[in-house]
Amino acid sequence: MRFREEPVTPVYRRWMCEQVGCDGELVSTGEGITRLSTRWKHRCGKCGHEDWAGATYPRVAYLPFDAIGPEDSYT
Ligand SMILES: [Zn+2]
User: Fold this and answer.
1) pLDDT digits (tens, 9 = 90+) for 14-73
2) In terms of Cα–Cα distance, which of 25, 23, 20 is closest to 50?
3) What is the pTM of this model?
4) Cα(12) to centroid(ligand 1), Å
5) Cα 38 from chain centroid (whole Å)
């Protein structure tokens, strides 16, 4: 068995609402539907916009140590 290890750093990933003029956050409602894969329902705490994602947010994500940025696009 051969390993290669690299440093990563955890970030708290929050799904920010994309509705115009809204600066709210989409939070998982706990409701999910499973077809080919599970989708989780989220609702904006500010404007009530609802959307679905393949994971629940907010969540902890791990990024390469040098990849921290406010606009990162890692998934
Ligand atoms: Zn919103």
Assistant:
1) 999 999 999 999 999 999 999 999 999 999 999 999 999 999 999 999 998 877 666 655
2) 25
3) 0.76
4) 19
5) 15
What is the number of H-type helices and E-type strands within the chain?
Answer: 0, 6
Instruction: State in Å: Cα 61 to ligand 1 middle.
Output: 22
Q: Are 74 and 63 in contact (CB under 8 A)?
A: yes
* Cα Rg of the chain (Å, integer): 15
**How many whole angstroms from 8 Cα to the centroid of ligand 1?**
31
Ligand 1 centroid vs 2 CA: distance in angstroms?
A: 46
State the pLDDT confidence band at 74, using cuts at 50, 70 and 90: low
Cα 25 to averaged position of ligand 1 atoms, centre (Å): 6
